[in-house]
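no rush on this but wanted to send it before i forget. what follows is a protein written twice so to speak, once as letters and once as structure tokens for the fold. mainly i need to know what kind of three dimensional shape the backbone takes. thanks a lot i owe you, the record is right below.
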Amino acid sequence: MKWSPDAPASAADILIALRFADRAARKAIGDELAGTGVHTGQEIVLAKLLHLGSLPVAQLAKVLDVEVPTATRTTQRMEAAGLVRRVKNDKDARQVSIELTDHGTELAHTVQQLHAQAGNRALAGVTPEDRRLLRNLLWTITANVDDLPG
């Protein structure tokens, strides 16, 4: 895909480029995940649980920005694969949290390395200064969208 770097960039142009960049990033990560037993989408669950620890499914869904049924199905598949386990709350047996198994923790660390490899491939030729600028701009866009009503 060719574009002129000097051409004006409308807001629509930028959002379209973000969508294509998201697709490219998902493909790069999917390529890296091949053969690990971790499916695209599950790597984010592994990363969040590694970072945040045990979470109730509803809270995990919120962190992942998905609906609770989606988080439930994903964690059920991951539980069947031995990546996570359900843990009942000592104070309220009705409340169940999801946590990584030892195998899930190992794979979460592997996924961190795979993200780094995919990122390095995707950002080849981008200077450290431009990487920092890009990261900050993307987080600003995310915050702006998250602050929109509805």
